Amino acid sequence: MINNGDITDGWYLNNTKQRQMYLDYLRISKLSKNPIMQTKGNHDINVSMYIEYFNHTTKVAIKNDMLAILLGSKNQDCVEWMTQGTTYEQYQINLINHTIYSNIWNSTKYHFLFIHYTPDSIWWQGNGTVFGLPEAMKPYYRYFTLIFSGHEGGPARVLTQQNAIIIHSAHLGDGKVSTDTYLTVKINRTTNTIIIYAVNFVTGNSTLLFSS
Q1: Rounded-to-integer distance, Cα 40 and Cα 74, Å
Q2: Cα distance between residue 50 and residue 44, in whole Å
Q3: Over the stretch 25-40, which tens digit does the pLDDT of each residue have?
Q4: 166 pairs with which residues across the strands?
Q5: Integer Rg of the chain from CA
Q6: What pLDDT digit, counting tens, does each position of 120-161 carry?
């Protein structure tokens, strides 16, 4: 299981309250029957605290014929994100490049990128400046089988951005039953197809979101 970021609402919390949210998340996640990996979001503003609990902001994970890169936002606080547009560092982009051209990439069949923002995410500043993700990342999106993102509001949906298919998870912070969903991904290796459902936490209803 993968949480695609914004574990806390750190913009509106002091460090003590943010730490308590992390501790609550860890306590609850231990009840899961499946291991959970995290992708740092822009609301998880304290990098050092995040690493204290989760050890890293960037990770390559391999399971059988699947490879996943989890790319966490680097921003230290909301001011840094809003005024400098900081999202990802060069070492994270280098990791993507290195992985794509590595033996582990060639020995796996399905390649997934878990990234908090959508590749076309932008945010406006009061002075008219527009920030987005680093231009250096654009050549790499097309290499992935699928990209999973969060960040933006609204329900789960499928996007095509930067020559890649983006599976956008619902924003639970919207506080609506219609967006209170999680995604399940099923791979049929006989037919080489991937099917993704959005499952509602409240109603239990399952809706087909994507089929390849």
Answers
A1: 8
A2: 7
A3: 999 999 999 999 999 9
A4: 147, 159
A5: 17
A6: 999 988 788 899 999 999 999 999 999 999 999 999 999 999
